[in-house]
Amino acid sequence: MLNGGWHSMRFFSDDIRDRVREDALAMEKRGDLAPDILEYIYDQGLFKLLVPEQFGGIMTTLPRATEIYEEASYMEGNFGWLIGICSGGGFITKLFPEHVYREKFTNREAVISGSGYPSGTARAVNGGYVVNGEWKFCSGSSFATLFTVNAMIEHGDGKDAEMRTFVFERDQVELVGDWNATGMKATNSQTIQVREAFVPEDRALLFDMSATLYEEPFYTYPFMQFAKVQFAAVALGISRHFLEECKALAETHKQEWDKGEKYSFILEKVHQAEENLEKARNQFYEVVHFSWNAHVNGEYFSEEQLSEISIVCEDAAAESLRAAQSVFPYLGITAVLEDNLVNKTWRDLQTACQHGLILSFR
Q1: Domain limits at 164?
Q2: Are 180 and 242 found together in one domain?
Q3: CATH number at residue 139
Q4: Which residues does UniProt assign to the signal peptide (predicted)?
Q5: For residue 7, what pLDDT is reported?
Q6: Which residue has the higher pLDDT, 258 or 239?
Q7: What confidence tens digit (pLDDT) does each residue in 126-141 have?
Q8: Pair 308, 333 in one domain
Q9: CA 341 to CA 33: how far, in whole Å?
Q10: Neighbouring-strand partners of residue 125
């Protein structure tokens, strides 16, 4: 069991937390992180949490990365989502040949965006492939330097199509500008398109997320479970922030709400939601720590154990939503106005928790 409760994590200073939250409503209108906040992420190496030191990264552990994702999302949902998604791109770089890694990903501002859905096609040509297609929901597309996507190679000789991961330069990609979601508006999760884009053979990667060219424990942790952990951590962080904003709203309206006992009612609802969320959070971190320790000790995960990791992530995300929904209906008309942090944080949470990897149909 984790100890320390809600505030056991402290990666970020109060100054950067205040700066990010100060910009929260403005970033939503812009649809992007502020330049100084993006610079902070570059300076701290937060997009390179899964990149080995030899390539300019700060390779970390799964528990530490998870704590960072949650704390960043507690500060502000778009900030946390982008750190999670863009650092998670480092999982793909484990398939980069060393010369590609050094040439394309050692720069301080190197960032990967992209999609795992195979919604493109490729044909073999001399020295590589020509790729066409479009891929939705590419978070961080406005500042990404590389895009990795999956596409099917059409052989044309009766053989089955083969999927590979293709790495595009930024100037090969067109941004569609179609990200109009309810929340997470500053993640810039646009559709990207490529037309007749040439990709050399050394950037057409065999799609095998269990393979790696580098001896890093993170690179051999099960990819699907890592992704679920990442998204669940984001949901937990945003939900914590939402409940905090609910308490702040109650304090703002204390004199008015006290007359009808609404003030004490809301605080009790928030308290109960926090207790339930903390239980889910503790269970989540127990499994994250246990699975990581087992992994680094060379243990093999059975299908049942992989399922357990997945379930605890889905449950953490579901409890994050339940916690918010147990309070939101009682907040009044202020909560449905989009110019306040209660509403924005609630919309961000609804949007983040629609990701297919943390939706549960059990």
Answers
A1: 111-206
A2: no
A3: 2.40.110.10
A4: none
A5: 44
A6: 239
A7: 999 999 999 999 999 9
A8: yes
A9: 16
A10: 128
